[in-house]
What we know:
By secondary structure, the chain is mostly beta strands. It is 10% helix and 46% strand. Helix 2 runs antiparallel to helix 13, helix 5 packs antiparallel against helix 15 and helix 12 packs antiparallel against helix 13.
Amino acid sequence: xxxxxxxxxxxxxxxxxxxxxxxxxxxxxxxxxxxxxxxxxxxxxxxxxxxxxxxxxxxxxxxxxxxxxxxxxxxxxxxxxxxxxxxxxxxxxxxxxxxxxxxxxxxxxxxxxxxxxxxxxxxxxxxxxxxxxxxxxxxxxxxxxxxxxxxxxxxxxxxxxxxxxxxxxxxxxxxxxxxxxxxxxxxxxxxxxxxxxxxxxxxxxxxxxxxxxxxxxxxxxxxxxxxxxxxxxxxxxxxxxxxxxxxxxxxxxxxxxxxxxxxxxxxxxxxxxxxxxxxxxxxxxxxxxxxxxxxxxxxxxxxxxxxxxxxxxxxxxxxxxxxxxxxxxxxxxxxxxxxxxxxxxxxxxxxxxxxxxxxxxxxxxxxxxxxxxxxxxxxxxxxxxxxxxxxxxxxxxxxxxxxxxxxxxxxxxxxxxxxxxxxxxxxxxxxxxxxxxxxxxxxxxxxxxxxxxxxxxxxxxxxxxxxxxxxxxxxxxxxxxxxxxxxxxxxxxxxxxxxxxxxxxxxxxxxxxxxxxxxxxxxxxxxxxxxxxxxxxxxxxxxxxxxxxxxxxxxxxxxxxxxxxxxxxxxxxxxxxxxxxxxxxxxxxxxxxxxxxxxxxxxxxxxxxxxxxxxxxxxxxxxxxxxxxxxxxxxxxxxxxxxxxxxxxxxxxxxxxxxxxxxxxxxxxxxxxxxxxxxxxxxxxxxxxxxxxxxxxxxxxxxxxxxxxxxxxxxxxxxxxxxxxxxxxxxxxxxxxxxxxxxxxxxxxxxxxxxxxxxxxxxxxxxxxxxxxxxxxxxxxxxxxxxxxxxxxxxxxxxxxxxxxxxxxxxxxxxxxxxxxxxxxxxxxxxxxxxxxxxxxxxxxxxxxxxxxxxxxxxxxxxxxxxxxxxxxxxxxxxxxxxxxxxxxxxxxxxxxxxxxxxxxxxxxxxxxxxxxxxxxxxxxxxxxxxxxxxxxxxxxxxxxxxxxxxxxxxxxxxxxxxxxxxxxxxxxxxxxxxxxxxxxxxxxxxxxxxxxxxxxxxxxxxxxxxxxxxxxxxxxxxxxxxxxxxxxxxxxxxxxxxxxxxxxxxxxxxxxxxxxxxxxxxxxxxxxxxxxxxxxxxxxxxxxxxxxxxxxxxxxxxxxxxxxxxxxxxxxxxxxxxxxxxxxxxxxxxxxxxxxxxxxxxxxxxxxxxxxxxxxxxxxxxxxxxxxxxxxxxxxxxxxxxxxxxxxxxxxxxxxxxxxxxxxxxxxxxxxxxxxxxxxxxxxxxxxxxxxxxxxxxxxxxxxxxxxxxxxxxxxxxxxxxxxxxxxxxxxxxxxxxxxxxxxxxxxxxxxxxxxxxxxxxxxxxxxxxxxxxxxxxxxxxxxxxxxxxxxxxxxxxxxxxxxxxxxxxxxxxxxxxxxxxxxxxxxxxxxxxxxxxxxxxxxxxxxxxxxxxxxxxxxxxxxxxxxxxxxxxxxxxxxxxxxxxxxxxxxxxxxxxxxxxxxxxxxxxxxxxxxxxxxxxxxxxxxxxxxxxxxxxxxxxxxxxxxxxxxxxxxxxxxxxxxxxxxxxxxxxxxxxxxxxxxxxxxxxxxxxxxxxxxxxxxxxxxxxxxxxxxxxxxxxxxxxxxxxxxxxxxxxxxxxxxxxxxxxxxxxxxxxxxxxxxxxxxxxxxxxxxxxxxxxxxxxxxxxxxxxxxxxxxxxxxxxxxxxxxxxxxxxxxxxxxxxxxxxxxxxxxxxxxxxxxxxxxxxxxxxxxxxxxxxxxxxxxxxxxxxxxxxxxxxxxxxxxxxxxxxxxxxxxxxxxxxxxxxxxxxxxxxxxxxxxxxxxxxxxxxxxxxxxxxxxxxxxxxxxxxxxxxxxxxxxxxxxxxxxxxxxxxxxxxxxxxxxxxxxxxxxxxxxxxxxxxxxxxxxx
Length: 1858
C-alpha cells in the first residue's frame, strides 16, 4: 500500500513570481516493491521531481514539489501519483498569491546638456502601494549604452518605495536617447520610460602657452605658471598631464574645471646640467583637442648660497647681556662659495657681531654655522635685517632680525612698614612684596642697619625675581622696652630707573598688645564704582581696655580716586576681648591700591596692611539694533537683549533706560493672593504684559481663563494697567496662584564676572505709525561707560471698540459747588484701547485725558459739573482713541436745597435729676445737599450734632437732651442757620416737664484684678439711686460670658433716694491663658423699676509661674494640643521645620550637582554640622520625666505588706492617698539617692519644670485622665489593673408578663477593695469605680470566648449584648445604689437572687439583667465582665446556662418584706435538694485548646481527631443522662466521693467542706448541662485535672424544676467596712464578733509587724544578701533585680554596703546598686517626642556617606543624586514618624466625657530660672490651688523637668506645648 506523508500541502502566501519548494515523503507499507510510473499536476505552476522511481517494501522515498506563483488560477493543484500498487495517490496543493501594485512615473527623463566623457545620475521612484505583504520584484534594463542602469534589480516590500538610478555617460558628442524597461511581477508585468541627453564639447582659453625660465643655476629651482579658463556651460575634464623632460615638474596630474571657472597650474624648472633645456607639457582633455604648453630654460654652473632661516627673533632680553642665535649657510652650487661679509643694521646702544669671522669659503654641498650676537646697554626695540654678501649666483641674501632689550621694573606694595604699637618684647612681622613687572629677571639685594630692632631672614638678603613674578620679604620688629624706633630698609636692583629703593620702617612698644585677624588684608578684588566691604577682627590681648577712636589710610601710590570709610568707630575693645570691624572702599580708577589702615587708639596707633586691585568690567551688549516690525496696537512684541561681562574680576553694574515709553523692559513675577469679599484681587506689579497671565485656583487646581466671570467661575477679567483681577463671587476667599509678566521703564542688572544675562524688551504700540527709540545702558565699564541699542517698531491698526455702559443721570449741583459722575467705558474689542484725548466744554470738565482699557475691561471716567446758575446745560463729551470716537451725552442744572424741619419739640415728662434723649429728623427735599448750623444756650436742653450736611432728598436724625432739676415745666429755643435761601435763619421752640421718680446710676465697666485661671476674684458694683423715689432692683445676672463671670444676687433690693447698694460680681477664668496672658470680657444686666442697664466686665488672666492651675483636658485643647490638627501642627512644627530645611538643602545640592562639586561638598558638610549641633544641644540639656504611674506591681516603703492586698489593691495604692501623697512622692523622688536618673541641679542652676496632675475621688476617671497624659508624655506600656471577674453568676429561665421567653441573669462583685498607704487603710467601694458591665451570650457552649476576639463573626451565631436595659424589678423596693452611676452600660439595676446554699454566701454587691431577646426550647450561655473604663476591664466570669421552657412557671414570687434593712440578701428555695449517687461510665477522649474549648470536627461527618496538635491536649469526657428530669442548671453541684475517700486515707481525717469543694466541678468549664426531650444531659470534662476517673462515685445535687416552686428572701450578714483596730486584739486571733466574714490572713495586719519574726541578714564576702527565710517576693525584690525598701530601712540607705534590713519582710535586702533600691517613683532621662534615635540614624547615614562618597563627586553626579534621593526617603520616613504625634488628638477624644480634674503647675517650664532642685521643691510645697482630693482620693500625673547650658531649643519647644 502506498501512502504520502501529507495529503494536503499549503505553500502559504507568496508574492507573484516567487518560487517555493516543499518535500513530501511517499511510504510503501506493503511487502512488495512498488513502481511509481508517473506524477502529474493539474496546474503547470507545480513541478514535481522525480516522477518515475521505485520504492522497496516497507521503504519510503522523497519527492520535491516546486511552486512558482505565476497566476492566481494556478495556485490550486491536484498532484496524482500513479503507481503499481493500485489507485493513484493524490496530494492537494495550494498557495495564496500576493500581487504587488506598481506606482511609477513613466514620463521622459531628460539629462540636458552634458560634457562629452562626463557623467550624470538621475533617479525615478517606483513604489509598491499594496498592503497585503507582497514583494514587488523589478528587473531594469537600458536600450542605449550611453544610459547605464546602476541597480538592475529591486525588491520592494508592501507600502514601500525605491529609487531607479540611471547614469548618463556619453562617449561622443551629439544627441543621445534610449528606453528604460521595467519588468515587474504585478498584473501589468512591464513598464518603460524614455531617456534623452545632449553630449557637447567644452571650450577654453589659456593665459599663455609658452613658459620661459631663463638662466637658472644648476641644483636651483625656478617656478612659473599658466591659467586655463573654461568658457563653456559644461565641465572641462583634464584626464592626464604629461611632460617630456624630467627637469620640468607640474603640480597636477589631472583636473576638473567647472563651467566658467579657472585653474592655475604651477611649473618648476630645476636644471641639472649647464645646457639650454626645452620641454613640452601636454594636457589630455574632453574638448577633442589636447592642450600643449612649450617650456624653455638654461642651466648655469655657479655657487649657490642658501640660508636655513629667513628671520632671527631675539625676543625680550636683559640689558648688558650678550644674546646669541645661529644661522646655517649652505652652498648648493657645484663650485666653491665665497662669503665675504655680513652687513648689520645700526641700532642705538646695541652692537652686533658674528662668529666665525669673514671671509670664508664654502665648498659645494657643504655648510657653515654662524652665531649672530647682539648686546644692548639701554632699552631698545628693533625690527630690521642684516645681509650676507658673497659671490653666490642668487646674489646678496637678507635675514630679518628683531628683538627687545629690556630693563626689569621693580615695584613694592608698600612704601613704608608701620608696625604700630606692640607689646614689649613681643615680635611682630610685616610682609613687603617686591614685584618685577617686566619680562626680564630682576636682581635684588635687601639690607637693614644692624643696630635697629628690625630684621629679615638671611635668605631674603639677595635673590632673583623672574619676569612678572614677585617675592615677599618678611620684616620682624621687636623692642625689649617701651619706646619707639625707626629705620630705613634699602633695596637695590638692576632696574636702571630705580636701582635703589628705600623703605621707612617704624614701630613702638608698650604694655598693650593688639592683634588683627587676618594679620593683613591682601588681594582684594574691587569692582569699579561698586562699594567693596572687608571685615576683620581686632583682638585686645592686654589687661586693659583699648579705645579705637578713628582711622586713616596711608597709601603707597598717589593720584588715585577712591574713598575708604567705616561706620564701626569709635569702639572699645575690652581686655581679652575682640571686635569685628568693616571697611568700605569705593574706587573709580583702575589701579592697584595698597597701604596701611592706621587706627588711632588711646594707647597709640595700630596698623593693618591693606592691598587690593580695582578692576573694570567689560560689557558686551547684543544685539545693537532691534526691529519689532509691524505690531498691532494693543498687542505686545518681544525681543531679547543679552548683556555680558567678560572680565574675570569685576562685577558689571548696568542701568538700562529707553527714551521712548512705548519700549519697556519685561519682568516676571508669581504670587498667591486671596480673592476678597468684593471678588477682586490686586497684583503687586503693574502694568501687566497682555497675554502672559496664568491664573490657577490652588484649591481645585483648575487654570482660569479670561472671559465673562459673572456666570462662569472659571473665568476672570483683568485690568493690566491697575493689576486688578475680578472673579466670580463663588471664588471669594480662595487662594489664587498668578504667574505673569509686567513691564518697567528701567532695569538694573548686576552681572558677576565672566557671566551673561538675558532679559526681554517689549514694544507696546498705542498708535498707528513708526516708533523709534534708543535703549541706553549706563555702566561702570571704564572703557564703555554707555552703550546704545536702537529699537524701532510700527504700530498697526487693529480692531477695537469702546462703548459707554449705561447712561449718566442728570447732573444736579448746588450753584457754585462742583459735583461729579462716573461714566463707564468698556472695551468690547479683542485688543487694548488707548485713549489719547477728550473733547469737553464748560461747565463740564474732565481730569483724565489719556488712559488704557484692556479687552473686556471697564474704566470709570470722571466728569465734573460746576453750575453758575439754574440754567439747563446739555453737551457731548467725546472720547478719542484707537477705536472710533465715543460720545457721552451730559445734562446738568444748578439748584438749591430745600429745608424741612419741625417748628416745636416737646421732650415730654422726665425724672428730676435725670436726662432723657429723643430723636428728631430734619429733611432736605431739594436736589442738592443742605448745610445746617444750630445754637442753643440752656442748662436743661441740648441738641447734637450742631453742624451737619443733609444730602439731597435725604434726612438727618438729631438727639435732643432734656435734664430737669425739679418737678416743673421748661421751655427754650434753638437758633438755626442754613444755606437754603428760603430758610437762612429759623428758630425751634423746645418744651418739657420734670417729675419726681427713682434714677439708677452705676459705672459702665468693672475692671477685675489680674486673676489666675481657676481662681476667683470679686468686685463690688455700687448702684445708686439719684432719683427721689425708691429704686427696686429685681435681678442681676451675667448676659455675656457667663462661664467666666458670675453675679451674686440673693433677691430684690430696694435703694432709697440718694442711697446706694453693693452688688458682688465674681471673675473666675476657666481657660488656660496664653503665655502673655488673656483678656476676658463680659456683661452683667441689672433689671429695676427705672430702666435696665448693662455693665461691661473686663479681667486679665496672667500666666503665673508656680501656681496650680485647674482645668478640664478639653479646655486646653484649643490652646495647645488642638493646634496639632489645625494646619501648622505646632507641637511637631519645630522638628518638621528642621527636616524641611534639610530637604531644602538637599534640593539645593541637586541644583549644584553637575557644575559645582565644590559647592555640593560645602552644602553637605553644612548639613552634617547642622545635625551635629542639634544632637549636641540635646545631649547637653538635661531632660527628665517622673511618671507617677498606676501599677499593679506597686512597691513602696510606706506600704506594709502584712495587709494581704492583691494586685488590684496595689494598683489603687500606687495612685491613692490623694493630692498630698502625690506631692510627697514628687518631693521624696528628688532625695532618692538610689535613683541614678534623678535630676541633680544646684541652686545656681537654671531649671524649669511642669507638673501635670489628674485628680478625682473616682479611680476610673483618674485612670482615663492618666491614659491621656501617658499618650502625651510617656513611652511606657500601661499597667492594666487586675479586676476580679463577677462571681455568683446564675441564670433563671422563665417568662415575662406577656408569657414570652425571658432569662434573668444575676451576679455579684466585691463590695470594697482595701489598700494601705503610709500604714493607713483605705477601703474603697467598688461601686464608685465602675462604669458598668459587659454581657455576652451565645447559643453554643464555650463559644463566647470566640466572640470576644471576633465580635463580628457569625460562625457560631454569637451575640454581643451590651448597653441593654430592662424594666425595674417590681420586687426591688429599695434604691440603695444610684443607677445613674451606670448609665454608660446599664440603665436599670436590680438586686440579685441566688439559690439557697449554705456554702455560697453573698460576698458583695449584686446585679440583675433581664434578657427578653430569647426563644423557648433553646440553650443560652452567658458570661459577664466588670468594666471600670474603656481600657480597664475584668476577665470574663464563669459561664452559665439558661434554657427557657414554655412549661416553666413565671418568675417566682418573693417575700421581700423586711428586707429594707438589709444591704444584701439571698434567696432560698423552699423545696429540698435532690441527691443522686452515680458511677462514672466509660469516657471518650477529646481535644481541648489552651482556652479550654473542645475542638470540634470540621463537619458532622468527620471523626474527632484525638491526636493533640500544637496548643492542644486530650481530656476524658464522661456523659451522664438524668431521664425525665429537668434541673435548675444553676443549682447543679457535683463532687467526687472516690477522690474524697482517697484524700481521707492519705490524711486520716474526716472529709471537710474544703475537701469536698476541691472535687467540685465548675459549671461552664468542667461541667456542661443541656436539656433534651425533658432529659438532663450532664457532660463532665475534667479540665481542672481534679482526677475524675471511670467508675468513680459521684454525688449530684440539684433542684428540679417543677410547678409550684416558691422562694423566700433573707438577709445575708456582711460587714460593709473593715475596722483594723477592732479586728486585732493583740493576740493575733480572729474575733467572730468583730471580724465576721473576714479571713485570718486579713486580720493579721497590724502596723506591719504582727506576722513576722525578728532575724538577721547573712553576709557573704562583705556583700549583704537577702535572708531567704524572711524574703517576701510580694514586697521586696532581690537586689539583683531592683526594688523598693521599707520605711524602717530608710535610715540605712546612705551606706553602700550596709545590710539595710535585719527584720521584717525586707530582711536581708542587698544594696547592690543605687538604682536597685530606689523608691517609687523613678526618674528617667527623656528626649522631647523621642525623635533623637531617628535623627541619630539619619546622622549616621550622613556621616558614613560623607566619608565614603564625597570623593565620588568628581566622578559624576549620578551616584550623588541617587544618594540624595535615598536620603530624602529617609527624611520622609522620619516625617511619617513625627506625624504619629498628631494621633494624640484621637487619644484625648476618648476621655472628653470624663469628669476629672486636671491641673498644671508651671515652674518656669517656658522661662527657666535659677534655684535648681530646691526651687522646684519649694514651689511644689508653696503652690496654691491645685489637686485637692483628700486621702481617699486618687492623683496621678507626670513631672517634666529640664535644665542645662544649651536648653534654648527645648525652651522654644515647651513654649509651644505649654
